[in-house]
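Appendix B, record 7
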Amino acid sequence: MSESVEIDSKKLKVAYDGLDTLVTTVKGQAKMASDNTPVSLPSLEGSTFTGLMSWLEDQKPELKTRLDLAVLLDTKGTGHVTYSVDKDTLDNTKTMLGNALADRGKELMPGGDPKFVKAYNEILASYTTDGKVMSPMFQKLGPEGTLTVLSNVGQASVPPMSEDVEAKKRLMDLYRQGLGAASKEPGFPHESFADGLVKAATKDPEDYVGRGTTGYGLTSALSVLMYNGHFSDAFATDLATGLDKYERLDHKGTEHLWSGRPDAMGTDFLWDQMVPYEAGNITDDPMISMNSMLANSPNAALDFYDDNERQKYYIKDRTWQNDGYQSLSHVLDVATTDPDIVKGPHAKDAAELAGATVNLLSQRRGSVEDMRTFIDDMHGDSAKNFAHILGTYMVGADQAVNGGTYAYKDGVDPSQSTSVTMDAFGNVVNIPLFDKDALAKFGVAAMSTEDGMLELRNATNRYESQKLGGLANLITHPKDGVDGEMALQKGISENAHLEGLFLKANGDVAIAEGKEKDEAIGKWIDMGESVVGLVKIPGVEGMAEGTAKDIVNLAIDEGKSSGVDTLKEKLAHYEKDATKKSNGDVESAVEQQQYNTAVSLYESDLASHPEKLENSPLFKDGQMLSYNEYKQLSDGEQSTVRSNLYGGLNGVGNHWDPNEYKEDLKSDFHDYFG
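C-alpha cells (predicted):
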C-alpha cells in the first residue's frame, strides 16, 4: 500500500540548512577544543561522539534528496508538494528524484532561455555520481530522449544575447558523468540502452527531415555524450560495437557517412563549444568520441580492437583527419600499455595489438620517404602515443632488427606474438612480432615530434642499459651452459643495430618533413646519454617467475614519459652545428655509444682494476663523468680516459672490443655513412 508524503519545501530547507550549520559548527568547535587542550578529551574522541556526528551526517542526504524532489515536483511554485510512494525510504525517494530530473530535462526547449538550464544544473550536479538517482533518470528519459535533451540544449539560444555557453556545456558534462554512474549501477540495461543510443543517432534522415526539429542533432549529441566518457566496460563495449556495426559492417565505411547527415550540417548548434578544442571535429565523426570513451576503459578498448578485421579497418584504412589520429593513437596506447592489462591474463592480446598497430599503420604509405602526408595529418600527442607503444615493447623492436623473420603482407595475420629466451632477461613472453620495414616506417611517425622522439629515446636508453646490465651479470655470475663473454658481445652488437635503425629513422623523419636530417640525427644522438646509476639487474638465474616480463616492458612501472624531463632539458640546450655532416653524426653516435657501453660494463663490475679508473680523469670529485662532461675534457685527457676505460689492463677491454660497435651500427645506417 502506497504512502502519501507531504513536504513544505521552505520549512524543509530551513531544517536542512540548520542541520548543515550544526554539523559544521560542532565539528569546528570539537577540533578547536582538541587542538588547544593539552590533555585528552575522551568525550570528543570516543565512539559516542563520532557515532553521533556520523548519524547527523547521514541525515543530510535524507533531507537534501527530499528537498530537491520537492523543488522539482513543485512546478507551480507553491512551496508545498504531495506525492505517493510505496514506502518512504531514501532509495525510493532517489528513484522518484531520478524520474523528476528526467521530466524536468524534457522541458528544456530548443533555443530556450539558459536560466532554466542553470537551475536544472544546480540540482542535477549533486547526483551525477549517484547511480540510484541516475539510473532511473536515464531509464525514464530513454536513449532517444537523452539525446533529445542534449540536442535541445545544444541549439543556440534565441535571442542570442541570452546565450550561456558555460551552462550548456556544464549540462553536457553532467549528463556524461551521470550516464557513467548509471551504466555502473546494478540492473541498468546497458545493452539495450547503448543499442537505443546508436539507433537514435543513426535514424534515417527521411524519418525526420522536414518534419520539425525532432531528429536533428542526435548524432552530434551522442558524440558529445561519449567524448571522454567514463562508462562501465560493458556499456562502452556495447556502444562501440553498435557504432562499428553501423559504419564498418552496414555501410562498408562509406565516405562522408557521418558528415553527410543533415544534423551535422546546421549552424544553429553550439557543438564545437561543448568539447575542448583538441577533441577535433567530433560533430563530423563520432568515432573520435568512441575512441576517447574506450581510452577510459582499457579492457573495453582491448576487447574492441582485439579483432583482425577491425584492426585493418580502423588502423590501416580509415581516415582520422578530423582529429589528426589523436583519438586512435590514444586508445591504442591505452589498450596495449595499461599496467593492469600488460601484467594480467590479457597481456598476449595487448602485445598482439601492439604488433598490429606497427604493422598496419605503416601500410598507409608505400615507403619510408613517403611518410610526409601521414606526418602532416598527425596532431597533438599522436606521435608521442605511438612512441610510447613502441617504447613499451622494445624487445619486439630488438627482435625485429636482429634477425627477425616475420614479414607482414596481405593474407598474413598482422597481430602475432611470440616468446623468446634472451641471455639478458631469460624467458620473455608476449613479444609482438614487428615487420622490420614496417617498424622503420612506424619509427618515422613516432619520432616526428620532439615529444615522440624524447619518449622513444628515453625508452631506448633504458632498454639498452638494462640489457647490458643483464648480460654483464652472466660474466660476474656465470650460468651453466651460457658463454657470458659471447652473450655480451652479441648483445652489444644487437644494441648497435637497434641504435642504427633509430638513427636512420630520425634522418628519414627529417627528409619526410623537408628538414635537415643532420639536425634530427644530431638531436637523437645528443639525447642518447645513458642514465648513470641505474639499478642493476639481477643475474638471470636469480630472477623470479615473471620478473623478466616486467623488466622488458620498460614503460609500465615507470609510467608514461618517466625520465623524459631530463632529456627535455638537454634538448632545450641543443644547438645545431651548421657544419655537421651525416658522417660526423655517425662518428658522434659511435663515440657516444662506445662510451656509454663501457660505462655500463664498468658499473656491472667488469673493469679489471676499477680502483685505477677511479684515480684517472674519468672521475671528478668521486663521480664518474657523464658523456657530455667527458667531451669537455682536453684531447689528451679524453685519450687517457679511453685507453684506461676501454683497455683491458684497467678497464673493460677484456670483455668488449669498442671498434666492433662501429661496423654493427654502420650496417643499419649505411644510407648516411660514407
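Remarks on this record: The chain has a mean pLDDT of 81. Residues 493-543+577-673 form one domain.
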